[in-house]
Write a structure and sequence with these properties.
Helix content is about 5%, strand content about 40%. The chain contains one helix and 27 strands. The protein has a four-stranded antiparallel sheet with strand order 2-3-4-5, with no helix packed on it. Strands 6-7-8-9 form a four-stranded antiparallel sheet, with no helix packed on it. The longest helix is centred in the first third of the chain and has 17 residues.
Length: about 375
């Protein structure tokens, strides 16, 4: 497997029903101080930030490739020092982001790895073998294995003490690590490819092969809203950070409402901030925090869509990929996507398409984004 981290100001990072090869970064480090943040003079930081901004603007970057997987790379995550990749070869690899050396390989799943997430202490993975495993990624030890789905686990996300998982069995399962309780959310008519929790509002969103995205209330265990508009299987869903602002200006006409796809696209304006009434009876108390205002999705209809969660409106549709969009990441400044067409695209959320990067020899299945890097994984067994 190989992986490329676009250093100097860019490096690359997530995907779906596939097999092949892919790449990663790995090195063994015994001293935990290696992972601690370093303090730097503010002038030096400002200078670097300025350079990074210029590099993003002009598309200047360097690349690193991580090779080691024997089958397609299906999921990844990275931080300042470490890259974790999961593959259809049934392993997870931990890489040193700077040296591209493999630190260790996590083995235990019996089939391909479709999703993973890590923090300072643990890594959680989901597999086609229908299990979820919790790992100490520093040592490589598997701490626990969870069963409960009747189909492969192809999406997961943890936030605080809660874990959400999406499965081939068409359900979303919520796992509470504090009281050990679990429950299922049923409503999708096909595979659940991606999930995103928001513990502050106690909601979760799920993307499915039934071409819809659903938002669920974790207190009532009911679906709050179904977002319809994609005409292909929805592969990814992201809740945008609170700082993200799509603006209050009128849009360029490429926006559409999810309910009227066959009609001429109306010119939409972003309304006043949503009220608690917008999210149903579970939010009757004004003390309950509202879900994030904006949501981003990608699908096999080759598009990316930006939604307003309170109204269910599609505010903007991003066109540019030639084939289905498997991978999606975003922050307040940009959206990055990877697709079946083997391309990685960078988008300005308000202006649309900005730049295309090529290099993978297979579909781009997973993607990660930081302020100065993009990391991508592919069926070509490489991570860039």
């Amino acid at each position: 497997t190989s992986a490329v981290a676009k250093a100097a100001p860019l490096s690359t990072d997530d995907g779906r029903r596939r097999s092949d090869r892919q790449s990663t970064v790995y090195k063994s480090v015994e001293d935990d101080s290696y992972f601690q943040p370093k303090c730097r003079p503010w002038k030096e930081v400002y200078k670097d930030r300025f350079k990074i901004g210029i590099n993003w603007k002009h598309g200047r970057y360097s690349t690193k490739i991580f090779r080691g997987h024997s089958n397609g790379v299906m999921c990844l995550q990275f931080d300042d020092h470490i890259l974790a990749t999961g593959s259809y070869d049934a392993t997870i690899k931990i890489w040193d982001l700077e040296t591209c050396e493999e630190i260790r390989t996590l083995k235990g799943h019996e089939s391909g790895i479709r999703c993973l997430q890590f923090d300072d202490t643990k890594l959680i993975s989901g597999s086609i073998d229908r299990t979820i495993k919790v790992w100490n990624w520093h040592t490589g030890d598997c701490l626990s294995t969870y069963t409960g789905h009747t189909g492969g686990v192809i999406g997961l996300h943890f936030d605080s003490a809660l874990l959400a998982s999406g499965s081939i069995d068409k359900t979303v399962k919520i796992w509470n690590f504090e009281d050990k309780s679990t429950f299922l959310l049923r409503g999708h008519a096909d595979w659940v490819n991606a999930v995103r929790l928001d513990s502050a509002s106690r909601t979760v969103v799920s993307a499915s092969d039934d071409c819809t995205v659903k938002m669920w209330d974790l207190d009532t265990k009911q679906c709050i809203r179904t977002f319809e508009g994609h005409v292909g299987q929805v592969q990814q869903v992201l809740l945008m950070p609170a700082e993200f602002d799509f603006g209050t200006d009128e849009e360029d006409g490429s926006s559409s409402t999810a309910s009227f796809q066959s009609q001429p696209a109306p010119i939409l304006t972003v309304a006043d901030p949503p009220s608690h009434d917008s999210f149903g009876s579970g939010f009757a108390s004004n003390e309950r925090q509202l879900p994030p205002r904006y949501m981003l999705t990608s699908a096999l209809d080759s598009t990316i869509r930006l939604w307003e969660t309170a109204s269910g409106r599609c505010l903007h549709t991003y066109f540019g990929h030639l084939e289905g969009v498997w991978a999606l990441a975003a922050d307040t400044l940009r959206i990055v996507s990877g697709a079946e067409d083997r391309m990685v695209k960078v988008w300005d959320p308000k202006k649309g398409y900005e730049r295309t990067f090529t290099g993978h020899a297979g579909p781009v299945t997973c993607i990660g984004l930081s302020d100065n890097k993009i990391c991508t994984g592919s069926e070509d067994c490489e991570t860039v």
